[in-house]
Automatic annotation (TrEMBL):
It holds the Pfam family Cupin_2. It comes from Lacrimispora defluvii. This is Cupin domain-containing protein. It comes from the Bacteria. Residues 43-111 form the Cupin type-2 domain.
Amino acid sequence: MSEKLLKNIAQEEILKLADLVEIQKGQIVSKTLVQNQSVSVTLFAFDKGEEISTHESNGDAMVTVLEGTGKFTVDGTEFILNEGETLVMPAKKPHAVYGQESFKMSLVVIF
């Protein structure tokens, strides 16, 4: 019996990742698609002004903005990402995420 590695997502169906999470007023919404010792894949929806404060990860984190605009700070350097843009935040470097406006992103972390 094979175990499904992906969860919370339809299989064998065309999807738009941005449609899988909804922006909610005053919140950050997340939906985990994969979580194991090697990789984590999570979708996020940030309301404008919401943030994840500075933290570090043990893995390389690749974010792709799916909708809107987000501000990412990596080791003190700010990056503004718009829909379709991707940024890699290296492991062990402090980083933060801020909703410059309401936005959605996918996060893939490789451990």
